[in-house]
User: What shape does this take?
Amino acid sequence: MRRGSVVALLGLALIAGGVATAVAVVPTWLPVAASREASRIHFVIWFVVAICIFIFAIVAAVMAYAVMKFRVREDDFEDGPPVHGHTGLEITWTVIPFVIVTAIAIVSAIVLSRNDAQAQDTLRINVLAQQFEFTFSYPDAKNVTSPVLNLPKGRSVELYMRSLDVIHSVFVPQFSQKEDIVPGLVTQIHVTPTRVGTFPLECTELCGLGHSLMRSQAVVMEPAAFDSWLKKQEKNAGPSSTGTSTTSTTSTTSTTSSTTPLSSAQAGLTVFNSNGCASCHTLTAAKATGKIGPDLDNLVAYAKTAKQPLEGFVRQSIVDPGAYVQPGYSNGIMPTTFGQSLTKEQLDHLVAFLVQSAQKSGNK
Ligand code: CUA
Assistant: This one.
């Protein structure tokens, strides 16, 4: 090979490599890494991208050089010289890809095993997915539940994920991990958050009409803030589950708008918000604007159409949504699992809240 062609090839390779590097580096392709695992995954991505740029530069240079140097003359109709196999070349282009693929496999395997390695004091969080919401519960803290995934910074956290109905998938872009939640299985994700902040958490498996609304947040806090949040939740969970349950049963049977049902209705609002009802339903009292299911401000009218007493109607619609379907809405979209996933108290609170707010908006 002449020195001139080597210089030309090198120059072309540098140009192609430079352009490809700029495309890879200048736009922000990846979200900030907010966990130790994400940083490792990003390392694998950049490792592979660097190899790709290197190969791209060689291929692009050879192609451009060939196009310019061996361009066919206008009056040339020959087939060109016959070329037979070249053993040295074939060994080279078998060995190099083998080495590259093996290197990527080894790097990925190391990253996967380190990412799955739990620390001694791993925090366990249970994730329950259902159409169309996530519920996070903390077994170390009396199983307090939250509609938002709260995490302490710097601590190893393992998510144990279950689905009540169909396949969902959890994805926090800044954690760079994605895992399906499959009915009948418990799937896991290990995260060690490294950055305080609020990040989107979304379902990334088409799971029904409300899929696009199945979103929550991952909130990473300083360990002290996380501990005090968890303590506060434990305290709230304690008295409300025993204290207000008795008032709720009496309040729903008695007439409306006395002072006692307020606390039950407030607890009901919490149940409403933490079970994703707002994704599908409109309800002024909860500032909910969902359009998939019936408008809960019209419950009084719906109960009349169904020829049922309001409270029984509301309760039945939550526990057994297929029993009566309001005309204009489709059957089978409302999850049938609330009868099991809500405790009796939560259900009582929710019914009390819905009955009360429906009567209020009905009176307007
Ligand atoms: Cu759950 Cu999409």
